Structure formats: C-alpha cells, structure tokens
C-alpha cells in the first residue's frame, strides 16, 4: 500500500490505465486489511489506516467505491471489514452538513453509470448474505443511494426488485428487505414514490406486521418500516377498508408477546395521532383501552409510548383550538374531535396513577424520563386542552394526597397541582391558589423530602407564571405575602442544587409578573437581598455542575430587566461586580478541557448578564454610568473573543451590540481594535449563530456610528458578500445580511455607490428566487418571506441612503426591477404582514428618492394602486403607517408637474371631504357643548 | 432501527434566557432599523424653505395689536432676511432657536393668504371654502414632549402639553424625537380652542409638497385619531378642532357663509385644491369678508376704532420707495431724502400712512397713483408691511366691496373657462 499516485495528468494515457489497474489490484487486495486496521485498538495503526482510506478515496473515487462494495458483498471476508466497508460507503453518500451532503449527491450523480450499476448490484446481492451485519449495513446503503437516485427518476426498478417474491424469502432476508424499505421511506420525500409503489410497499409491510407472521424479527422490522411508510399512506388512510386493516394490524401488534413489537406498534400509533388525527374517531375508544392497559401493566418503554399517544393528541387539539380562537366561525382546516374532553373521566385517573411511580433520584439525573414525568407532562397538556374542566377531576387527588406521610403521595399531589396551572382560567384557579400558596410556602421550608421541595418550588414558579402579573384581574400576591414569598425563596436557594434551581425559577416568574408596574416596584425593598442571594448561588461549589448557575444568572437578568428606574442606581452597582467576575474567569490559566468548558459557559453567562444591564441602563440619564465602564467592559469582551469559545463569543457580541447602541458615535473609538473580532464573527460559518449575531451587531454599529462606520465598510461589505455566496453558511443567516446592506446604506448614504455593482446583482437574483414560493410547505414559505423582507429592507435603505444626492441617478437602472419585484410578490398573494409593510414602504421610497423617474414607472405598474389601497385598509398598524408614508411620497412624486395623479391616488380621500354639511355642523356643535 | 426519543421538556421554561436575549437584541435592531428608515423618510421631505421676502397681508386685527411682547431693541432694526440662520433645515433645529432668531425664523413659515380682490375662475371646480375663526393666527409645533404655539410675528404665544404626537411627556405619547407636528391654526379665545386650518407636518412627515386637497384629507383623518380634539386634561391643555371644509359650489359657499359654527367667524378662506403649502404670500389661498360674516370688515386702530381714513403700512426701501410686502413689491410712493433724515427714518422701517382724498388710481388693473400721507412709524410688533391685496381689499371695502352675491354669481355662471382650457390643450 506504499504506492502513491502522482497527479494523473503526469502520465500518458496507456501508462495511466496500467497504473490505475495496478493500483486497484493493490488496493483491492489490501482494502480488507486497511478496513480492519481502521478498527484497531492501536491509535497509530488506526490513524494510518484512516489516512490510507482518505488517500484512496481522493485519488480514485470510482475504484474506491467499487472496492468497498466488493468488500461488502464478499462472503469470504471478515464481518468487521465488510461492515466498515458498508459504513464508509454510506458516509460517501451522505453527510449531516447541508452543503457537504449536496456535494456528495452531486458527486454520486456524476459517477459513471457502469460503476454505479456494479455497486448497486453488489448492494442488492449483499441483502441475501447469511451474515446479519453485512446485509443490515447493505440495507442502509441502499436507502442512501435511493435517497439520491429516486428523486432523479433513476433506479426505478429498485422497489419492484426488493418486493419481488418477498413472500417466498427466508425470514432473515425478508426481515432485511423490510428494513431496507423502511430506510428508503425515511430517506425519500413522499412525492417521489407513485401510488402503485406505495401500495405495494404498504401491502408487504402490513402483511409482515400481521399477527399471522410467525417470525418476530420480521414482524418488528415490518413495524419499524410501517412507521416510516405512514407519511406515504395518505391515499390509503382515505380508504376506509385499507385504513381499518392497517389500524387493526397495528392494534393487534400492541398485544404481541414481544416487548419490542408492542413498543414499535405504539410508535406507529403516536405517528398516526399527528399525521392522521382526523381519521382517528372510529378507533379512539379501542386505542384508549389499549393504551390504558399498557400504561398500567406494561413495561416502561411501552407505557411511555402509550402516554405519548395522548400527549400527541393534546398537541393536535391545542393547535386546532388555537386556530379556532382566532376564528370564531370554527372554520379550521381540521375539525376538533374533542377526544381529550371525551376521554377525560378515564384519562385523568390513569395519568394521576402514574404520578406515584417516581424514581428516587430523578431530580438529580438530567437525562431521566420515566412514567411519572411523562404522566405529569401529559396531564399538563390535558389541562391546556380542556381548560377549566381539568380542575374537578384532579382536585380530590391533590386534597387526598398532599398531606400524606409518604413523600410519593405528597410529591404526586404537588406535581398534579403544578401541572394543571396552565390552561384553566384564572377565575377558576385563583381561590384555590390563594389557599394553596401558604401551604406551598410552608412545604418549601419544612418538608423533609428534597423531591417534594423541588416540585413545590417548581409549582410556585408556575403559580407566578400563570396567575401573577399586571394582566390579572385579581392579584394573588399582596404586599403582605410578597415579603414571605421572597424570604422563603431566598432561603430555598441554599437548599440542594435541584431545589435551589427551581427556587430561582420561581423568583424569575415573580419578577416577570412585576414588569410594567405603574406604581413603585414591589421588589425594590428586597432588591439588594435578592442580588446577594443570586450571586452567592453562582459562587456555590456545586452550582457549575448542574443547571443551577445558569438558573441564577437567568433570574438575575430577569430581575434586572423587570426593575423600574427607581432602582437604576442599584442596578448600576452591578456593573463593577459582574465585570470583576468576568475578569476573574479570564485570569484562570491552564484548565483541563472539562473545566475550560465550564469556564466558557460561565463567561457566556456573565457577558449575557452585562448585556442585560447595559440594555437596562441604556437610556438617559443612566447611560452615562454605562459609558463610564465602557473601556473596561470592551477590554474584557475582547479577551473573551480571544478565548474562541462559540457560546461566550456570541454572548459578548450581543452585549457589544447593546453597548454600541447605548454609546452611539462614541463607540467609534473601539472600532480599530474591535474590527478584527467583527471580521472573525462574520467569517464563522460553522457556528452560524455567532455569524448571525455579528451581522446584527453590524446593524447596531450602523445606527450608532452612522458615517463614522465608513472606514470599515469595505471590509464588512466584502465579508457580507462572501457570506451570501457561501453555500456553507446556514441559510437562516442570509436574509439578515440583506437587511444589513440596507443599514449600511442608510448609515453611509451615497458612499454606498461603490458597492452597488456587487450588491445589486445579488439582490436581484435573490429577488427573482424569492418572488415565487413554489414550495408548498410552511417552513419554506416562511423562509421565503424572511428573504423577501431582507431584500426589501435592503432596497429601502439604499434608496433612502441616496436621497437628495446627485448620485441618485445611479439607482434609476435598478428601479424597474425593484418595482417588478414588488409587483410580483403582491400578485403571488402569499406575503406575510411584515413583508407587506416593507414592500409598500419600498414603493414609497422609490417615489421619494427617484421622484418623477419612478412615478412614470409606478403609473405603468400593474398593481401598485391596488396594493396601496389594500395596505391602506389594513388593520395592522405598521402596514398602515408604511402605506400612508407611501401615499404621501407618491402624492408628492405625482404632484410635481402633473395633475393627472388624481386618477391614480386621488380618489380615496375625495369622498371624505364631501361630508354632509349638516352632519359636519352637528359634530362641531356637540364638540363644543 | 432506533426508537424515537419522546422526552419532553420537564419542569423547564420553554424558552432559554439566552434565546430571550437573542430575541430582545433582534427586536432592538428591528426597532432601530425602523427608526432609521422613518428618520430617513422624514428628513428629506421636511426641508423648510428659507425664501426671503417680507410680507404681511393680514388685517391688523385689534386683539393682536395689544399682544404683550418682550421689548427687544433689535426688533426695531432693519429686517434683513440674509441675517437669519441659513443652515436651518427643519423645525427641530428651529425650535432650538431662542429670542429674536426664533421669532424671525418662525415669522416666515406661515402661508399667508392674499385678499380676494376679484373672483378667481373655476371656484367650484378648483377651490375649497371654509369659515375663518376669529382669533390669533398661530403656528403650532409639537415636538419632544411639548407643544409651542407662535404668533404670526414668530413670538411664543402658548407653551403647553397636548395630545398631538410628541406633544406631551406621557407614556403613550412619548413617540420618537422625529415625530413632531406643525399645524397652522387660529386660536379662538372664547372657547380656548385651536382651530386647525391647515396641516404642515404630521409625525415628522412633511406635507409642504402636498396639495391642499391631500393636506385636508390628512388633517381630517389624523387629527381626531390623535386625541387632540378631546376636551382638555392635565396632559392636554387646549382643545384642537377642525373647521368644516366645503367644495366651493353654491351650497358649500352658503354653508361656510351662513352655516352655524361654534366660533366667531371672521370672513371666509378659499384654498386652491392643487396648491402646495407655500410659505409667505400666495394668491392660491384667499381671504374674503363682508360685514355679515366678520366684525372687523374695516381695519381698526389700536383703540379699536375705525379711522376716518384708510391706514396702510409700507416698507421704506434704500432709494426712499415705499413698498408693500409682496414679491415683487408694489411701489406706493417715494419719500425724499430730506424727509427721511429729518424724521430719523432708516431703510427697512415700517411706516404708517393714511390714504388721502385723492385715493388710488388704477390703469389696466395696475396701481398707477396713490395719495398717501405719512402718519408715523408702525407698531413695533409688526414684522411685515401690508400686502397689495390687503390695501386694495380695504380700499374697496370702504367704497365698492366685493359682495357675497358677486361670489355666488360667479359660481352660477356657465363655466366656459374650463372648455377654453381644454381647447387650448388640444391645440397645443
């Protein structure tokens, strides 16, 4: 394996052929060993083998892939090398990162058809291997190839060949074939398979899952395959007979003696509950019996799925009812069948029973998920679904258990109470909570069980979250009990980490409820004490290992956020405290990697806290306090950047955005030093959140510095343009980049002219792409609207930036396209309110900046008038505001030298002036009298 | 095949604090962007003109003469338009001006109607009519949490909180620093109400370049919305009110002329629908009155009595010419150097004259000769000389006034003017 090929271009053709052949032979004979070495326990051997594989792949991909498939199919090879060959092959077809995945797809599609056919033949042949790992790996690779080829209308015979004589196959091959079908359904989008293929797959899968199938492995594989195939089964679920059959087979499978099959069958039911909610009515009674039995009697993995079924039904009904809420006719796409309401008398007792099945240490275990947790979560969802109706069936359970000597009963009762606080109306809950509040405060102080205290503190948090705040009619917190509440919560912050964390959470919501108070802030007397207690927590030895530290800072942030101006001076005293903490984290050197991660997390929290304080003190007159510390704060942030931790970087960046906003033009002094970190952020494709946040900060800087940002614009614009053309960068970052162009243009005015030739073509092509939302799915439509908004904001900024400048004429050539864009998105009729607001504003900006140059175009445009009228009659304040601006700008643009504008925009206000004189007079009289 | 993770958030808030910080930052950036856009959109169209030209066409209404004002020796000095601060481009900057500078700046921001000395063509088609409330003409500016009204000569009249956008420091009304308003008003003392007769800026958007038709529409839809028409409260010292505007057809004119209004009428205002708001004198807005719709048809003196002879205020020019405030000025006569020196007069002084028995003589519709006699220096509150139309209107009022029947007659005439215009266009 010492042979290293030079660049193929260095060899004459015949020689090259010979070399490749030789190489292939060498590789093929050695590939087994390399694959085995790649799994060696010896790190050096392993590393060398991995390098060899990479080299082979880079130098001759077709040969590499052929070797791998040859290894996989070869029954004489060791199982370990075969299995790894399959996995390497699979990784050569798919990747997690979007751009890498795309590259791999393109690479496969461009391979020679002969090579691909040979690989595919090997894969299909491997399916009948007696070695389980080999055939199972092959089934996964087949799905990856199918995922690439089926959408391209390639490999059309695949499904047919898999299903051919499936009934005659020996069980182990039948099993792997069903697995392959399942993986294929997971890989390809539903519209790729035609109904005939879907029918065949479903037939095979459902038959495989049927009780008459004696082999449990086959049955399990079929159940898993069905789970993936369900999204293809729209037509079959519309057919009563077929649906009945599928549902019967699934329900029977929930009774299988094999636990895994029962679990898989319930997974199918969960999937059906969300995909085919509206088809469930005939089966819901039977499903209830099945799930109730499973919850009470079956093993935990099965019982958890059974509970999940009801949680999922709640999700559906909450969504539907929410849609009803905005629409009094109840005219929703999907009707609500009120399954939860109907099942309530049986469902609630079943869920309450689960609450008593807590695990001893579940509160210490971050990854815990058990019957009690799932049951309580489901109860909370049920409460949100049925509202007031949840209270009567739950109250007796609470009353009966909350004072019992057994901690499980007290905890279950408290958890039930906490779970039903969201959903019912405050009117239904207030009197109960008024009685319970004191009890809870006592329990949090005195209950001997930590589990009970944890849940009690959490329940108090829920009480404050849902029943306390300026929007409430009756308040449950008075001046008298406020002091008691704060005292108890601060006391609990010294308790075990999980209890202290929940106490922080309760304080968080207590503070949140006091946001927007008009009179003096109720927490003012306790502010110092609260801050002290929270800072003490952050320094606890055991805080860093749990969520406690985070919870303490989150609570501190919320207390600061909701505080009123009267304690601004106390808030400002926090700046030196937090900067000192941050300073200390930066002084600690040489940590183990585990400790370093904790340090980064803490730095992120401290930067976040500073951000909140800066924002709070940002307005006059307290902004001078912030300015005082600006040098010190910036110095620390730059040291945080130097640590290169993504979380801390993002938090520091957000804080700097807030600082720039507060400082305004004075921030300019930091720019020379800060600029390199800005560059760093804009180039961070991998941690795209950092990139996104940095783009936002550029927006802040534009607002703060205005034309003082000019010296840095060449660099910033270059990086933003690079970001836009990168397919590595997460797509969610792109719309804000366009908006950022607008911010820059507004800040630097017609100095933007030199970027026009780069920015405008990008904007135009993005505009063309986003003009039509071909995609049916909501997510894509939402993204398209985000993109449109970014593009339009960019146009707005550029147009306004150039206003009153002699360079305005540079924009004239772009005007028709901009107008066309606005026209086309109007005609699409699928823009959201935000886009509508921005688009109508752009129409005004065109008229405002380009005057008569634009008015002639607008006069000719298809829909401007209609669009404007629609926006003017909108109920959305922002759309209206923008539309009125546009009308004003258009009136001025048309008014100059032309009286014909009345035909365009003049008619709407005419009738208003011709009010009946009598009415007018009466109005005036009544106003005086 | 892996089983599907079904863990749900447990005892946790749904949104992390970090996510909240991100969202709040985005919100701030969005708001800033919106503010910046609004600012850009407003600034450009808010440039107020600083045209020179001195004018004062309105009747010296008796109340106004008695306005108390701070004595400022500078106000006696010759008025030179060039000395006003040139770099002022909008009212926010202007509102920072103090004393004489502020007064001078604001004194030239009002649109001043000419007096109707003949009936314009196309009254019905192109004009609005409204009853003019009697009172002090004011320029009302709300900005930065306060409202200031200034009289025609630019001096501050009231300083008060109002429900106009940015007109008071209240939570709902704090608005942005940019959302100032400028209204053209008449303060009616009896019901302590500002009657809005025109809207110049609203929430920072300038309406200077908009037609009267549009300005009235905007006024109609915006003023009531702001709550400024509500009765006074602690944060809203004076009530604002609109004046009904009619199309100047027969019924509209009669409504304005005879219709009952909650204020004391002082004549009628006519607005050309297509005209923009133009500072200084304009023939596209006209004022007319007779004794039926105004208590002050003939000018009174400072004691409120009608002088036996018509009084006019004229400006003294370099060369001794006596001119009106029009642009270009109309010359009524000339003072010789000796007289100027003897009386201690200086260029730019406003001088009061009486029209003698010889009256005014016209040729081809232009003033040919005027018999005027020097009375003395004008009241120092005066910022401008009389306009030509004012002098002529007063002159006619004492002899052959333009009567309401003349206006009505012109409306009921078959409108051949329009046909002629369109013919001309077709020829062209």
UniProtKB/TrEMBL annotation, chain A:
One GO CC term, this protein: cytoplasm
InterPro entries assigned: ARM-like, ARM-type_fold, IMB1_TNPO1-like_TPR, Importin-beta_N, Importin_beta
Ranges for domain Importin N-terminal: 49-129
Keywords linked to the UniProt accession: Cytoplasm, Protein transport, Repeat, Transport
BP-aspect Gene Ontology terms: protein import into nucleus
PROSITE patterns named among the record's database cross-references: IMPORTIN_B_NT
Domain of life: Eukaryota
Subcellular location: Cytoplasm
A Pfam match: HEAT_EZ
Cytoplasm as UniProt keyword: yes
Family annotation (PANTHER family): IMPORTIN BETA
Protein name per the record: Importin N-terminal domain-containing protein
TrEMBL record, chain B:
Start and end residues of each Snurportin-1 m3G cap-binding domain: 109-285
Subcellular location: Cytoplasm; Nucleus
Keyword Transport (UniProt): yes
Region span, Disordered: 1-21
GO molecular function: RNA binding
GO biological process: snRNA import into nucleus
Listed InterPro entries: Snurportin-1 (IPR017336), Snurportin1_C (IPR047857)
Keywords from the UniProt entry: Cytoplasm, Nucleus, RNA-binding, Transport
Gene3D superfamilies listed in its UniProt record: DNA ligase/mRNA capping enzyme
One cellular-component annotation, GO: cytoplasm
Homology family: Belongs to the snurportin family.
Functional summary from the UniProt entry: Functions as an U snRNP-specific nuclear import adapter. Involved in the trimethylguanosine (m3G)-cap-dependent nuclear import of U snRNPs. Binds specifically to the terminal m3G-cap U snRNAs.
Name this polypeptide is given: Snurportin-1
Organism per entry: Nepenthes gracilis (Slender pitcher plant)
